[in-house]
Design a protein that fits this description.
The chain is α/β, with parallel strands linked by helices. The protein folds into two domains: about 180 residues, Glutaconate Coenzyme A-transferase (3-Layer(aba) Sandwich), CATH 3.40.1080.10; about 240 residues, Glutaconate Coenzyme A-transferase (3-Layer(aba) Sandwich), CATH 3.40.1080.20. Helices cover about 30% and strands about 20% of the residues. The chain is built from 15 helices and 26 strands. The strands form eight sheets. Strands 4-3-2-1-5-7-9 form a seven-stranded parallel β-sheet, sandwiched between helices. A six-stranded mixed β-sheet has the order 11-10-16-21-25-26, with helices on both faces. The chain has a three-stranded mixed β-sheet with strand order 18-17-24, with no helix packed on it. β19 and β20 form a beta hairpin. α8 runs parallel beside α9. The protein starts with a helix and ends in a 5-residue tail after the last helix. The structure holds coenzyme A.
C-alpha cells in the first residue's frame, strides 16, 4: 500500500473539513492535548455566520482556548456538552450556555458505545509512521470507543505531538480527512508547593511504604505528595492522569514499577497533561502505556496491584466524610473524573489506602473546608461509604468503617483551629458527638 499517496489524498484545509459539518451533528473530542483547536475554530466560524445550528460538541478537560466555549452567542448553534469541565467548558456551564454530563470517567466508553451517535471524531495526532499509523499521543481515554462509533474521523496532524508506542493508534485507512498543524501542546501552569502543601505531602508520604503503587489526582496537593515521595524506593504508577511530578519520580529513581502485580516494569495511565517534559518523556517510550479509561480506571483492575495508594483533592468535606470535589455550593468547578474509581480500587487492593487531601481553609482562612454539613448545592463526589483517609495540614483522619461520632471527632481535630469550636458546637447540637 502507498500510505503516503492516501495521506496526500486526504490532506485538506480546516475550512474544507468544517464545510462538511451539518446542522444537528454531534462532534466528539477527547481530553486536553488531543483536542483540535484549528478544526474547531473553522467550525465555530460557520456557526457564527449562521451556516450551521444545533451542533453539539462533547469534550473532556478543555485546555486549549477553544474560543467557541467562551462565546455565548453561539449557544444553540455550537454547544458544549462536557464529560468533565475545565477552562472554557467550566465557564460555559456556570454561564448557563454549556452542559455537563455527570459520570464516572471509567463509564464514558460505555455511554459512547451505547447511547450516542457521533457524526465525527476530531483528534490531534503525531505524524504518520511508515506503516500508516498515527499515534494518539498523550491520550487514550475514550478515544478508542469514539473511533469505533464515529461516522467520520478528522485529524489534526501536529509534529509537536509525541509518539506513544504503547498507546492508541489510528490508521490512515480509517481517516476521512486531515490537516497539518505545527504548534506546541498546551501546558499546565506549574503548581506552587507552599509550606502547607509540603506538610500535607509529608503526612501522606509517611503512610506510603516502599514498593507501593500510586495514583495522584489533579491539583496542587497531589503534586505536593509527589514531591514528598522522592525518597521512596520501588514505587509503581497506575493512574488516570500522568503528571509532571510522576516524571520527576521516575527520573529520580523512586518509581521503577518493579513491584507491580500487573504491567510490571511499566507506568500505566489513560492520559497525560502537564509540561513539555511529560510530552518528551512519552515520545517513543515503551516504559509508559496509555490505555483506555474503561480498563485503567476500573476498580477491579486498579485493585490488582497490591498496596495501591490513591491521592486526590477536594473542595469541602462534611462530618459524615462526604467529599465534594466538584462545586462550591451551586457553582460548578470540576467533574468526578476518576476520584471514586481510585478510592474504591485502592481500598479493594491488598494493603491499599485512599487519601483525600486539602488545605484546611480557603480564601485566606475565612472558610473551613471541613464543614458540619455540605454547603447547599454542593455535589457529593466520594460518598461516606467509600471515603477512607482525610488529610489536612493538621493531621490525618481515618473514616472508613468508623462510626459517625468518631468520624466527627477526628475531622474536627484536623480542621483549622479557628473553626473547631464552631464545628464541635454544631456536631453536639446535631447529637453526633456521643
Ligand atoms: N469554598 C470556597 N472556595 C473554595 C473552597 C471552598 N470550600 N475550596 C476551594 N475553593 C476555591 C479556592 O480558593 C480556589 O479559588 P481561586 O481559584 O480563586 O484561588 C479554587 O476554589 C480552587 O481550589 P483549589 O483547592 O486550588 O483547587 P485545585 O486546583 O487544587 O483542585 C479540585 C481541587 C478538587 C477541584 C480538583 O482536584 C478536581 O477537579 N477534583 C475532581 C476530579 C478528581 O479528583 N479526579 C481524580 C483523578 S485525576
Amino acid at each position: 500500500m502507498n500510505y503516503t499517496a492516501e495521506y496526500e489524498a486526504k490532506r485538506t484545509s480546516a475550512e474544507a473539513l468544517a464545510a462538511q459539518v451539518q446542522s444537528g451533528w454531534l462532534i466528539g473530542m477527547d481530553a486536553g492535548a488531543a483536542q483540535t483547536p484549528t478544526i474547531m475554530s473553522a467550525i465555530a466560524e460557520r456557526a457564527r455566520k449562521d451556516e450551521i445550528a444545533g451542533v453539539k460538541v462533547q469534550t473532556l478537560l478543555d485546555v486549549y482556548p477553544l474560543e467557541y466555549l467562551a462565546d455565548n452567542s453561539l449557544f444553540g448553534k455550537l454547544t458544549s456538552e462536557a464529560w468533565f469541565s475545565g477552562g472554557g467548558s467550566r465557564r460555559a456551564v456556570n454561564g448557563g450556555y454549556g452542559d455537563i454530563i455527570p459520570n464516572y470517567y471509567r463509564d464514558i466508553p460505555k455511554y459512547i458505545r451505547g447511547m450516542y451517535d457521533y457524526d465525527v471524531f476530531c483528534v490531534s495526532v503525531s505524524p504518520m509512521d511508515r506503516h500508516g499509523y498515527f499515534s494518539l499521543s498523550t491520550v487514550s481515554s475514550y478515544s478508542p470507543a469514539m473511533m469505533e462509533k464515529a461516522r467520520r474521523i478528522f485529524l489534526e496532524v501536529n509534529d509537536h505531538q509525541p509518539r506513544a508506542v504503547c498507546g492508541a493508534q489510528v490508521h490512515i485507512s480509517q481517516v476521512d480527512g486531515l490537516i497539518e498543524v505545527s504548534h506546541e501542546l498546551p501546558v499546565l501552569p506549574p503548581t506552587k508547593i507552599d509550606a502547607i502543601s509540603e506538610t500535607i505531602g509529608g503526612l501522606i508520604a509517611e503512610r506510603i511504604a516502599d514498593g507501593s503503587c500510586i495514583q495522584l489526582g489533579i491539583g496542587a496537593i497531589p503534586d505536593a505528595v509527589g514531591a514528598a515521595l522522592k525518597q521512596k524506593h520501588d514505587l509503581g504508577i497506575h493512574t488516570e492522569m500522568f503528571t509532571d511530578s510522576m516524571v520527576e519520580l521516575i527520573q529520580c529513581g523512586a518509581v521503577n514499577n518493579s513491584k507491580k502485580q500487573i504491567h510490571r516494569g511499566q507506568t500505566v495511565t489513560t492520559f497525560a497533561f502537564g509540561s513539555k517534559r511529560i510530552y518528551d518523556y512519552i515520545d517513543d517510550n515503551p516504559g509508559i502505556a496509555l490505555l483506555p479509561v474503561d480498563y485503567v480506571n476500573d476498580p477491579n483492575v486498579i485493585c490488582r496491584n497490591d498496596n495501591m495508594i490513591s491521592i486526590n483533592a477536594a473542595l469541602e468535606v462534611d462530618l459524615w466524610g462526604q467529599v465534594c470535589a466538584e462545586s462550591v455550593g451551586t457553582k460548578h468547578m470540576s467533574g468526578s473524573g476518576g476520584q471514586v474509581d481510585y478510592v474504591r480500587g485502592a481500598c479493594q487492593s491488598k494493603g491499599g489506602k485512599s487519601f483525600i487531601a486539602f488545605t484546611s481553609t480557603a480564601k485566606g482562612d475565612t472558610i473551613s473546608k471541613i464543614k458540619s454539613t455540605l454547603t447547599p448545592g454542593a455535589v457529593v463526589t466520594t460518598s461516606k461509604n467509600d471515603v477512607d483517609y482525610i488529610v489536612t495540614e493538621y493531621g490525618v483522619a481515618h473514616l472508613r468503617g468508623e462510626p459517625l461520632s468518631r468520624r466527627a471527632k477526628q475531622l474536627i481535630a484536623i480542621a483549622h483551629p479557628n473553626f473547631r469550636d464552631e464545628l464541635s458546637f454544631e456536631a453536639k447540637k446535631r447529637g453526633i458527638l456521643i
